[in-house]
Amino acid sequence: ARVLVRNALRCVDFAGAERMVRINQLPLGLEDLEMLVPESPDLVLIPKVEDPRQVLQVQAQIEQVQHESGGSDPIWLMPILESALGIENAFAIAKATDTVVAVTIGLEDYTADLGVAKTAEGAESLYARMRLVNAARAAGVQAIDSVYGDVGDMPIHDSFAPSVAEIEKALRVVAAFEEAEAKGLGVVSLGTRMIDPPVVLRAQHIVALARQTGRLPEGVR
Which residues does residue 194 pair with via DSSP β-bridges, in sequence order? Predict the structure, then answer.
């Protein structure tokens, strides 16, 4: 498997996509790095991380292999949290090293660790997912959700897109903000309500997302 992955990194044209490799659980994963690091993958995923020291082990091994092979390209890290202990240590793991750019959760192993069934609704993992999101935000890295296994369920695209009502409200907020800005006002209001800066930022994000997904009403610039 190591040879196949190494050869893929070496020979396959990924057309500009990030090349991300999931190594084995430590300590076996440290041996994987000896063959993979010289091919300079963009990011390494570290499974079943429960302690920030595991991240530091991977970082140290990457630096050692790069020193021996003469490599210098940055290789980013994404720990996968797959247990109750990993979730409780989420912030420390995310801050373990500057090369951590994201953290993600593995729900199959996490729910197995809890001894509960994984459901489509996800109530059993809500605490873990929110804990990961909060830790990632506090650490300044990306929060990535668990792998979505039902590849035939295309409505997932709609689930991540803003609704019509959200878009309409966001457009009103953005319009009020732009009007206040044009008048040199320091306070934004919509009708009789004051609009706080975080609300404006969220509205701008929704409008940008609606534009990217082609969901802006016709005639809106």
Answer: 189
